[in-house]
Amino acid sequence: MSKLYIVPTPIGNLEDMTFRAIRILKEVDLILAEDTRTSGKLLKHFEIGTHMYSHHMHNEHKTTENLIARLKAGETIALISDAGTPAISDPGFLLTRACVENKIEVECLPGATAFVPALVNSGLPNDRFIFEGFLPEKKGRQTRFLALAEETRTMILYVSPHKLLKTLVEFVTYFGEDRQICVCRELSKLHEENVRGTAKEVLTHFEKTAPRGEIVVVVAGKTITKEPKKSKFSKDEKEEEEEED
Domain named Tetrapyrrole methylase: which ranges (predicted)? Predict the structure, then answer.
């Protein structure tokens, strides 16, 4: 029976690969990989010999129609990205949507993704949060920061290492230097690091220590200051009541 499997892969530590993910990748007819060279190392490690086909952000618009035809013909296909869960700041949405539109079954396996451990590691409130992924490079960036400055939920962002310092300066500018943040670096890997503190403190840290590796930033939401509860009496009424007493 035709089906598209969305299969998460480890974000660093190969021990995070699930038994089910390995089985599915061995059983399907085809694996769609963001980068066949990167995924080739993973498949070799787990002795998976299934044929791979390149499927990434630069060709997904062109390949989707052909993949839908193959699925309709009865093939089973697994989609993986270089790391984590496909479609989370990675290719996957277009093909998933096309499958839904064509009534082709889609099954997403639970598994590794970077923003969940980052959120939990941060020590910031995680009962309500928003995932922003990568912020716009130029157009719309300031507008997005102005909107996020008023956000009261914890915010999660993906930031490339060469843009981290710029982003931290923007945090200080738009959120204030006392806003609590956590920069999570190289999650699940040997040199995992979680740098917590105010925006100013974390900026100072990375001005002295060049950021490297995969980075997730968690930012506390804006604190809402409650106004003092107003008395139900006016000033004159209160004075009159006190005189009567």
Answer: 3-202
